[in-house]
Amino acid sequence: MSRQKTYLDYAATTPLDSNVLKKMMPYLETKYGNPSSIHKFGQETSEAIDMAREKVAKFLSCKATEIVFTGSASESDNLAIRGSIKALKRKKQAGDRVHIVTTKIEHKAVLETCKDLERDGVRVTYLPVGPDGLINLDDLRAEILPETDLVSVMYANNEVGAVQPIKKIGQIISDINKNKEHHTYFHVDAVQAANWLNCNVDELKIDLLTLSAHKIYGPKGVGILYVREGTPILPLITGGSHEWSLRAGTENVAGIVGMGEAISKIKNTKAEFKKMEALKDKLVVGVIKNVQGSKVNAPRKPEDRLPNIVNFSFLGVEGESLVITLDQEGFAVSTGSACTSTALLPSHVLIAMGLIELDAHSSLRVSLGKYTTVAEIDRFIKVLPRVVDKLRKISGR
Ligand code: PLP
Question: Model-level pTM?
Answer without folding.
Answer: 0.97
